[in-house]
């Protein structure tokens, strides 16, 4: 049962990831609720919901959608921004874990937490610049997006449904899922053709998840006045 | 960061115990104190109690303390794991020194090992914070320097208090100049880190956090109505005014007051100066460590600017 601390290979042959299209996301939170539904119903036990019907409800989520406004009125862009674990290729949260509960899988690059080994010291959450990890206040262990590892390999599901719950739920197709190391995959093509980018590249964590920019936000020279009708 | 009192108490208590043991070891090895002296004996017992109390405090930080033993597993990669190994090791060497002494044997190698393991423990503890490169307030050698100097300063003042209570008085006079100099140097080093943090330029911006280049970006919603782990763990609840008071509190109580009291002892040989100095300094150092955590701005906070 002992897990050796084999250092993660510099580049894995396969790296599953999400590519999120900010041009298409409408901020409906369907990915948030479907994620919660799938992951609260799994073998790992329910995700905490504290004071669910109180004035200050709180709970564990693996995925959140935030909203930002860029630019100044009237030239503003509303950006709905889903964020979950980015499954970094060089995840800073993994080597700091004192128990080995946090690990990155060599076969598909998914970063996971072994809930049976986690001591709830929260150190890995300090070591994630993205705030992707949340301590479950009921189980007292660190939790995070698993890329629905208990779904994507499930052979009892039709092949088309072997995708993370958030991808299945997205009504606008803003979430793509696949192997970013396969140059012919849908995600690799999208990153190449649409200028996919990583969050906080300054920390060189090499996030596997990437974002496709807003087409409007990436064209700041457009003359917006011409677009307006009378 | 939101300072956890368990970690604040753990690091300050442990640091003072380390400083006390190092002081006793140097006094014994240097011949200033006889190894069988009552101050050495009670000092080692006190250090042992403080180390056990700090270990207990560190357990309070865990969600699953019953699994704490697992934390020794990843010593190859994790500074936290290394700290978890070295702390009991240090406690054990202190215990062994005390035990051999109690049995009437003085093994000069044991205080030497105690000093070396104590230095190792300061290094491990500081590296736990220093190694997180994007917590820029921590990721600097000053973190190591401060943890070590503050531990030494509080340990020297604690040993001064012990010598004032148990004696011999002459040794307290010998300790005082070192306590004064180390406390002032620790004060300077902490002031340097405060100065560095005041002008720190954070590498991450809201632009890099969400990958939008627009100059003006504001958050409309952070995706939940009433907070989450992300808003509880990484934001401290103190106001700007409270933060400022705590900063001045630790500068005065942690460094200035003990330095003045030790200087007063040097002039007057008034024993009570030590006895007042340690509790006041410890209170100041609790504030110092609280501030150390509170001042660190985690880049994830960029994602949580508006509650709605």
What's this model, at a glance?
The complex is a heterodimer of chains A (230) and B (308). Helix content of chain A is 16%, strand content 21%. With 230 residues, chain A is of the alpha+beta class.
Task: Set out the fold topology.
The complex is a heterodimer of chains A (230) and B (308).
Chain A (H helix, E strand, L loop, with lengths): L15 E6 L8 H11 L8 E2 L7 E2 L3 E10 L2 E10 L8 H4 L5 E3 L6 E3 L9 H4 L7 E2 L6 E2 L21 H5 L5 E5 L6 H9 L15 E3 L11 H4 L3
Parallel strand pairs in A: 1-11
Antiparallel strand pairs in A: 1-10, 2-3, 4-5, 6-7, 8-9
Chain B lengths: L4 H25 L8 H22 L19 H24 L6 H22 L10 H26 L2 H30 L7 H5 L6 E5 L7 H5 L6 H29 L3 H24 L13
Helix pairs in contact in B: 1-2, 1-4, 1-5, 1-10, 2-3, 2-5, 3-4, 4-5, 5-6, 5-10, 6-9, 9-10
Which blocks of ≥5 consecutive residues of chain A have pLDDT under 50?
1-6, 217-230
| Cα-to-Cα separation, first versus last residue of chain B | 21 Å
Structural class given helices, strands, pairing of chain A?
Answer: alpha+beta
* Low-pLDDT sequence parts of chain B: none
Strand content of chain A: 15-25%
């Amino acid at each position: 049962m002992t897990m050796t601390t084999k250092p993660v290979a510099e580049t894995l042959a396969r790296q599953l990831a999400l590519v999120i299209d900010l041009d298409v996301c409408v901020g409906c939170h369907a990915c948030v609720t479907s994620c919660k539904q799938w992951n609260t119903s799994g073998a790992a036990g329910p995700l905490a919901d504290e004071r669910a019907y109180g004035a200050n409800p709180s709970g564990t989520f693996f995925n959140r959608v935030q909203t930002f406004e860029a630019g100044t009125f009237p030239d503003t862009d509303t950006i709905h921004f889903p964020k979950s674990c980015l499954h970094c290729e060089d995840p800073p949260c993994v080597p700091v874990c004192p128990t080995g509960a946090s690990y990155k899988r060599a076969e598909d690059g998914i970063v996971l937490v072994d809930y049976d080994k986690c001591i709830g010291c929260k150190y890995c959450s300090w070591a994630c610049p993205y705030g992707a990890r949340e301590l479950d206040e009921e189980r007292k262990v660190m939790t995070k997006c698993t890329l629905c590892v208990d779904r994507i390999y499930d052979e009892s599901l039709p092949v088309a449904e072997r995708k993370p719950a958030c991808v299945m739920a997205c009504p606008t197709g803003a979430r793509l899922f696949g192997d970013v190391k396969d140059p012919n995959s849908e995600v690799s093509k999208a990153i190449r053709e649409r200028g996919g980018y990583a969050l906080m590249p300054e920390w060189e964590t090499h996030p596997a998840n990437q974002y496709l920019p807003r087409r409007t936000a990436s064209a700041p020279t457009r003359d917006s006045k011409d677009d307006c009708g009378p | 960061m939101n300072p956890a009192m368990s970690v604040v108490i753990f690091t300050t208590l442990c640091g003072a115990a380390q400083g006390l043991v190092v002081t006793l070891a140097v006094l014994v090895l240097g011949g200033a104190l006889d190894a069988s002296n009552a101050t050495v004996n009670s000092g080692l017992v006190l250090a042992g109690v403080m180390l056990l109390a700090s270990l207990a405090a560190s357990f309070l930080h865990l969600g699953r303390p019953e699994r704490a033993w697992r934390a020794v597993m990843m010593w190859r990669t994790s500074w936290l794991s290394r700290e978890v190994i070295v702390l009991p090791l240090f406690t054990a060497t202190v215990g062994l020194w005390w035990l051999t002494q109690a049995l009437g044997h003085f093994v000069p190698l044991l205080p030497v090992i105690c000093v070396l393991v104590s230095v190792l423990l300061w290094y491990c503890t500081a590296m736990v914070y220093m190694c997180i490169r994007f917590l820029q307030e921590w990721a600097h050698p000053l973190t190591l320097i401060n943890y070590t100097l503050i531990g030494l300063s509080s340990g020297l003042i604690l040993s001064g208090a012990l010598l004032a209570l148990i004696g011999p008085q002459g040794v307290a006079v010998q300790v005082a100049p070192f306590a004064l100099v180390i406390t002032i140097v620790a004060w300077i080093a902490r002031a340097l880190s405060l100065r560095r943090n005041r002008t720190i330029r954070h590498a991450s911006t809201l632009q890099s956090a969400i990958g939008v280049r627009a100059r003006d970006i504001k958050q409309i919603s952070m995706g939940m109505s009433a907070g989450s782990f992300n808003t509880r763990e990484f934001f401290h609840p103190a106001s700007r005014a409270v933060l400022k008071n705590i900063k001045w509190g630790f500068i005065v109580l942690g460094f200035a007051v003990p330095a003045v009291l030790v200087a007063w002892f040097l002039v007057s040989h008034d024993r009570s100066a030590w006895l007042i100095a340690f509790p006041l300094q410890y209170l100041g150092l609790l504030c110092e460590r609280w501030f150390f955590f509170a001042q660190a701005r985690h880049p994830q906070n960029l994602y949580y600017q508006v509650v709605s």
